[in-house]
Amino acid sequence: MLGPAHHQGSLSLGEYKNTWSESHPGQSCNDFTAYAMSHMGRAKSDVAYNPAAPPEAYTNPSIHARINAYTEVGRALHGETWDPTTAPLSGEAIMRAGQGKKHGRYLIANSLVDTASTPSLSQLRASTTDSTPPIRLRPETSVASVHQRQAEMEAKFEEERRCRMEIEAKLEQEQKLREE
User: Can you give the pTM of this predicted structure?
Assistant: First the structure.
């Protein structure tokens, strides 16, 4: 993980939402935006959810991928006008976007998902038809970010090697000039 897991400290996600709402009177904060903002900054800070925010806006790039996966599946399930910032959390969309519960946790907002009304993965598989969104593999951006960091490190290493070779060549030339 590149940064801290979240910015909510010892607060539960529900407490983060309440603290954010108290700190920002007149602004709305549903469970989804609380989840997103808890990965962007502290509840009492000037943090605000922006769907166009890049992966770097989050403490971990995988959060961006999770939010996008949830939003895409939610729109496929509930219609193109469905907005996660105004609608309640969709347990079915979370289950379909995250391929169920991995290691006992939902894809997003684990503590705020209504488990009583959320279908299990086996129930979703049984009810999936051609007209329903497929159950997706959980996004694995952490692997992509590891490969990206590795490529960046290799490029940096090559640049340093090139500079070192240039310096060594200059030193050899200077030494030859002194010997003459």
Answer: 0.68
